[in-house]
Amino acid sequence: MDLRGRLISKTSKQWFKLLHAKVIISKSVDPYFNLALEDFLYSNSKSPRSLILYTNTPSVIIGRNQNPWVEANVRKCRSNLVNIIRRKSGGGTVFHDLGNVNYSLLTNRNEFSHTKGAELIVKALEKLNVEAELNQRHDIVLKDTKQKISGSAYKISKGKSYHHGTMLLNSDLKGISSYLRSTTKGIISKGVTSTRSDVANVNLSQVDFLREAMLSFLQYDDARHVSGTNPDTSIDDQKTADLSSRDNVVFVDSNDLAGVPHVMQTMQELKSWNWTFGQTPFFKQLITTNNLPIGNHQIELDISIRHGIIENFNFTSSNDRLQQEIMNYPWKGMAYELGFINSFMLNSVPSSEALIVLDWISKNI
Ligand SMILES: Nc1ncnc2c1ncn2[C@@H]1O[C@H](COP(=O)(O)OC(=O)CCCC[C@@H]2CCSS2)[C@@H](O)[C@H]1O
Ligand 1 within 6 A of 32 CB? Predict the structure, then answer.
């Protein structure tokens, strides 16, 4: 067999192993890779029932139909190199870092439940002496304080489903509140908005949590396998040891899937401006001020943004000259983006009043 043949057969063996594993633990902390891995397994498993576990470097993960400028402090994320990523599942926005572990339960559609994944995690926490429960929104909360420790989202299509969720082990809680606090004012949007909650860490080690989460899932999976013949099956310690044997659990790194087209393409898509910002549902921004040092009058800005691009721009001021100057800029078709005003600076010489207005606009975007 030639080298190419050997490579292909090695790759297909790896794929086979991955697609048939019960638990997949990602060794990568790249959020783009991990979300692409999840999408790959979801799309390619014929009859999925598996659990994926992964941790990401600091990132803000918005839901499929959300507005990043409403959900996050985009400016702060950019300057601190925190990725803003639009995921494929619906729901709200969460913050990830190395103190947060994500789980993803893949099943056939007919096995889908809004609670199963979270219940398995609650069981795992119980083993680790953390008393937790599900609230009505299917968040996992601490029993005593009701603080949220895990949020979930779902995707169901083509006969398959996944339920994925977070788990705050030792996350930067200040990061959560600062990165998820938008500074953009006056947005009117039809997109899905997040439900903000009081959050807490469970202060467990990652190794302990991963082990119990994995065992909790494997026990559930095993019980389902044998339930047809013996519904009373209980899992003893010996069985637990068998369940976590090497064949059930596969560790995967980004190198293992380098060159797998689905993974590469999904990573590219998730990284693109067109996906992250361009998929934002239509929104408007309406802001007014009478506080600018350009005379004692009110100015008003009314922008419509479709697919992240300015579709309509209206600026009104009782200073006609200023109004005309601002309206003369070619706003339409520009990306509603931080720094888009800088490109105007390069192309024109604004009056000092216009500069003050442009600065005000840039601070409100
Ligand atoms: N990491 C983390 N875990 C739990 N709760 C969080 C987290 N980050 C933020 N929050 C809180 O949840 C709300 C949003 O709650 P909301 O219910 O609106 O949204 C969610 O929970 C979505 C969870 C998505 C999970 C996926 C799993 C793998 S990829 S992302 C936010 O405003 C904070 O108050």
Answer: no
- Please classify residue 89 by burial: count the beta carbons closer than 10 Å to its beta carbon, then call 0-12 exposed, 13-18 middle and 19+ buried: buried
Compute the distance from residue 193 Cα to the ligand 1 centre, in Å.
Answer: 12
For 331-352, the DSSP string reads: -TT-B--TTHHHHHHHH----H
pTM: 0.90
Domains and CATH numbers, the chain: 3-272 (3.30.930.10), 283-363 (3.30.390.50)
CA atoms within 13 A on the CB side of 345: 11
Assess contact for 26 and 52: CB atoms under 8 A.
yes
Q: How confident is the model at residue 361 (pLDDT cuts 50, 70, 90)?
A: confident
CA distances from 139 to 150, 162, 165, 179, 198 (A): 6, 16, 9, 20, 12
Q: Is the CB of 148 under 6 A from ligand 1?
A: yes
Structure tokens at 160: 């398959």
Rounded to the nearest angstrom, the distance between the alpha carbon of 31 and the centre of ligand 1 is: 15
The rounded distance, in Å, linking the Cα atoms of 243 and 239 is 6
Contact 336, 343 (CB under 8 A): no
Residue where the block lists tokens 């105007």: 344
ipTM for the predicted complex comes to: 0.99
